[in-house]
């Protein structure tokens, strides 16, 4: 492939991935909540975690994880069950904590611990979604030529990483503004409850689904 063709492939992958990032999902929900409740620093750390997860799934997708799932369906089922349980437990803890009264001291402790754990939360939330490798594999199968070079594949993965970082960093910056967070803080309990229910619902869906699609 010549340079123009490779750039066209990267642009196609980037365009589809940008749309995938903009559509609200669990990553968006996590970064949004952290930006509003914990501030810009925590949200940006979670953003980096999400982007690292994107990079991992991008590499897995390029090197044929879908083929592996077809050859060993139990691996896909294991990923769905483990990921689903993680999401359900995360949502359950979030939902239950929304009913508890928080003192100023406990709020400060939660803020500190939430900031230090934000990267891990972003990474695990992204990796816990078993649909991600299937989507990425499908995207690469459609956009990349049959014998794409490793260099081209890595360039596409790098573009996906940058797009995830840029989009969620923008979300984190805008929603951490005091004027915006002040509004959201007045609905903190309901935001936590809705976020918790969303995580639990998707977690249950992953655990109970049995098709590898």
Automatic annotation (TrEMBL):
<feature type="transmembrane region" description="Helical">
    <location>
        <begin position="48"/>
        <end position="69"/>
    </location>
</feature>
<keyword id="KW-1003">Cell membrane</keyword>
<feature type="transmembrane region" description="Helical">
    <location>
        <begin position="15"/>
        <end position="36"/>
    </location>
</feature>
<keyword id="KW-0812">Transmembrane</keyword>
<dbReference type="Pfam" id="PF01810">
    <property type="entry name" value="LysE"/>
</dbReference>
<feature type="transmembrane region" description="Helical">
    <location>
        <begin position="75"/>
        <end position="96"/>
    </location>
</feature>
<keyword id="KW-0472">Membrane</keyword>
<feature type="transmembrane region" description="Helical">
    <location>
        <begin position="152"/>
        <end position="170"/>
    </location>
</feature>
<keyword id="KW-1133">Transmembrane helix</keyword>
<dbReference type="InterPro" id="IPR001123">
    <property type="entry name" value="LeuE-type"/>
</dbReference>
<protein>
    <submittedName>
        <fullName>LysE family transporter</fullName>
    </submittedName>
</protein>
